[in-house]
Write a structure and sequence with these properties.
This protein has 10 helices and 5 strands. The chain is of the alpha/beta class. The chain has a 5-stranded parallel beta sheet, with helices on both faces. Strand 4, helix 8 and strand 5 form a beta-alpha-beta unit. The protein is globular and about 35 Å long.
């Protein structure tokens, strides 16, 4: 199963908001989820977009912060983007704000805009107050259920946005494009010396 299929599976399950249960009457049996991720992704989301079949060439390496209230989605995004980029995945919006307030600077910030309590919009407003350059580097993650307040917010800001679940090739391409357009966020990023992320993908070590 590819990284993209894992992300799509996690994103699809998150959109169900607890409606999937292990019950013969349910639309999806959880046994099928774990037995065949590719099949369940197809059933929940439809066929994989054609654009996902074309490889996205590697672009510049960036230091990304992923801000999402769902741990599985954070991990899935980190898995997909972490092969090319350094990533930091704070557990809460408050933790993410604390990193910026403490002086951390990121080339791009992926921010969930549909978290409960308008957390994503409030996060943007506070980042804009603290550091406008960091605010312009935010990419918003939205879903198919866009509330009127969210529409009004998106129409008031210039930031790019991409829907959840998203085509991973399109996300990678968008990240690469914005890294070129915005440039490095600070001298350490420009020199390729990224701060040590708090969370990294697990790697196998065979040395003795």
């Amino acid at each position: 199963v590819s990284d993209e299929e894992i992300f799509l599976l996690v994103a699809a399950l998150s959109q169900c908001h607890g409606r999937i249960v292990h019950d013969p009457r349910s639309a999806v049996d959880l046994d099928q989820v774990f037995r065949s991720p590719r099949d369940i992704v197809h059933r929940l989301l439809g066929p994989k977009p054609e654009s996902a079949d074309a490889a996205t060439p590697l672009g510049p390496r960036g230091y990304l912060m992923i801000v999402d209230d769902e741990p599985l989605l954070r991990s899935a995004l980190r898995r997909v983007l972490g092969g090319q980029h350094a990533t930091t995945c704070p557990k809460t919006f408050a933790d993410a704000l604390a990193l910026v307030a403490g002086g951390m600077r990121f080339d791009l910030i992926l921010c969930d805009l549909v978290a409960p309590g308008r957390a994503g919009a409030a996060f943007y407003d506070e980042i804009l107050r603290q550091d406008p350059d960091q605010a312009r580097r935010i990419i918003f993650l939205t879903d198919a259920t866009v509330l009127p307040a969210t529409v009004r917010f998106l129409s008031s800001v210039p930031n790019r946005r991409i829907g959840k679940p998203c085509d991973m090739q399109l996300l990678r391409a968008l990240v690469n494009q914005l890294l070129v357009e915005t440039g490095p966020a600070g001298p350490s990023c420009q020199a390729g010396r990224f701060p040590e992320p708090r969370e990294r993908p697990m790697t196998n070590q065979t040395g003795k």
